[in-house]
Amino acid sequence: MNHKKLNQRIIFGLKVKQFRQEKGLSFSDLATKSGMSISYLNEIEKGKKFPKVDKIKTLAEALETDYSELISMELSGTYAPVGELLRSNFLNELPLDLFGIELSKVVEIIANAPVRVSAFISTLVEISRNYALGEESFYYSSMRAFTELHYNYFEDIEKAADKFLKENDIPRGQAVDVTSLEQVLKSKYKYDIIEGGLDQYPEMSNLRSVFVEKGKKLLLNSDLTSFQRAFQYGKEIAYGELALKDRSATSSLLKINSFDQVLNHFKAAYFSVAVLISQDHFVKDLEVFFKNKKWDGEAFLNLMRKYNASPEMLFNRLTNLLPKRFGMNKIFFMRVFHDTKSEKFTMDKELHLDRQHQPHGNGLFEKYCRRWLALSLLKDLHEIQQGGKYVGTIVGAQRSHYLGTKDEYFALTLARPGNPGSNINISVTIGILIDEELPQKIHFLKDPSISSKVVNNTCQRCPITDCKERAAPATVIEKREKRKKIQEALNKITGN
Question: What are the angstrom distances between the C-alpha of 246 and each of 2, 14, 280, 283, 462?
Answer without folding.
Answer: 17, 34, 31, 32, 46
